[in-house]
Amino acid sequence: MSHKIRIIPTLLYRDTQLVKGKGFDSWRPVGSPMQAVKVYNMREVDELIFLDIRATAEKRSTDFQLIDDLADECFMPLTVGGGIRTVEDVRTLLQVGADKIALNSALYEIPDLVNQIASAFGSQCVVASIDARKTSSGYECFSHSGKTATGKDPVSVAKDAEARGAGEILITSIERDGTMEGYDVELTRLVSEAVNIPVIAAGGAGNYQHMVDVLSGSKASALAAASIYHFTQQTPLEAKQYLREHGFPVRL
Amino acid sequence: MRVAIVDHGLCNIDSITRAVQECGADSFITDNPKDLEDVGRIILPGVGAFPDAMRNIRARGLDVALKSLVIDKKMPMLGICLGMQMLATRGFEGEETPGLGFINAEVHKLEPQAGERIPHVGWDEVSYPRESKLFAGIPSNKDFYFVHSYHVVPADPSEAIGVCAYAGGFCAALQHGNIYATQFHPEKSQKFGFHVLKNFLSL
Taking residues B3-28, what's their average pLDDT? Predict the structure, then answer.
């Protein structure tokens, strides 16, 4: 098997800097976006995800000039999310150098946007980003950076996004996010077994064994993580070396 | 050398433009057929949907200009991803759509094997059925970045210069005279991707 598991650092942008929180709260500053992009570019990571987490709440588009500047230093695939409401937003983001765009709140408010983007630019550029919280009866999706309950379960949202033309699913466990206690394997399993498009697991990675655990217990194609790289000495390269030692195909 | 990046209005063209500049050439984006006349290389990039892209190419008169330069005057050209697919005779994405027809080939949907997912997204190995200038100096089975659901099937299999094992195997790169194409994104494939671009620039 030559197709590689992707290891993807996630950059969360808020008020001019990168941040990382716990459970989508208690944000701590972790540096400047340009510096992070340059470092990850030098280290040749597989891919980057950049999310402007206040854009939707502030009812604005993401900062296109910033994305333009970042993309100029980013010779690897770049996914950009935050505040995307129209096909024109997507066109602008692709023009300034994004390769894929991530939709989150729009999945619930304007689901037809997935169809429109897939039809104009192709499925491969639409990532459906789903934030879910565990409940007593299963899982529930939240929009607006985890603030707004949607009453929907992640499996049905993922299947709907796939049917509308999304090319990938990014599934994030809200309560695991930033805890470094491990991915929500069950959530990732449920979503990755429900769809036939690639699924990126996110939320909770604290060490390399957590990555092995979620890959063993689900059908995830890629692993996003942030705190592990911001707050520990662990790196995407070492993560891939660990995965290879445990039998998973990675690009080294 | 001046390198024209052909803009058909659908995709991330900034990255390929920047990557070519990093490789030492003078690249610029254009959708004007007149701008193509005094360049040394043409790159047709692309992600997006085949029918829309072909419509945009024809609406701008780029199909005629490209044919004159690439087919008649043998200008070296590189098609990337959807830009590779557009070189084919016809595509079957959504509706049957004629392509540029520079290469006798059809574009079909990838057929996933057990456990595989479509789109084919991520890093995958490319091996070489034959030697080519495009991959000169790059060892076989190195990883390149792919993001696509369709692939080019050349009528003449010997035109494939790179293959990838995913989805039962598909043509990852091809050459037809002065025309080169890659299904992967060299501009997103870091050191080996840049090596491919440099090879194309120094043909």
Answer: 90
CA distance A248 to A251: 10
Q: What is chain A's length?
A: 252
Report DSSP letters for B62-114, one per residue: HHHHHIIIIIIS---EEEETHHHHTTSSEE-SSS-EE---SSSEEEEE----T
Read off the CATH number of the domain in which B26 is found. Answer: 3.40.50.880
pLDDT in tens, B34-46: 999 889 999 999 8
Q: With beta carbons under 8 A apart, name residues in chain A contacting B125.
A: 2
Report the chain A residue with the minimal C-alpha distance to residue B15.
A97
B 78-97 → A contacts, CB under 8 A: 82
Number of A to B CB contacts under 8 A, please give it: 119
Contact of B52 with chain A, judged by CB distance below 8 Å, is answered with: yes
- Its pTM stands at 0.94
Residue B7 CA: distances (Å) to CA of A16, A195, B71, B143: 32, 34, 19, 27
Task: State the smallest CA–CA distance between residue A75 and chain B in angstroms.
Answer: 5
ipTM of this complex prediction, to 2 decimal places: 0.92
Q: Which two tokens stand for residue B34?
A: 């007149």
pLDDT digits (tens, 9 = 90+) for A125-145: 999 999 999 999 999 999 999
Sign of dihedral through CA atoms B189, B192, B195, B200? negative
| DSSP string over A12-33 | EEETTEEEEEETTEEEEEEE-H
| Domain around B100 | 2-201
- Whether A177 and A203 have beta carbons less than 8 Å apart is answered as yes
Q: Is residue B81 flagged as an active site residue?
A: yes
Cβ distance of B15 and A99 shorter than 8 Å: yes
**Structure confidence at residue A208 (pLDDT):** 98
Q: Cβ of A2 and B166 within 8 Å? A: yes
Asked if B100 and B60 touch (Cβ cutoff 8 Å), the reply is no
Q: How many domains does chain B have?
A: 1
Q: Select from B4, B8, B165 the least CA-distant residue to B83.
A: B8
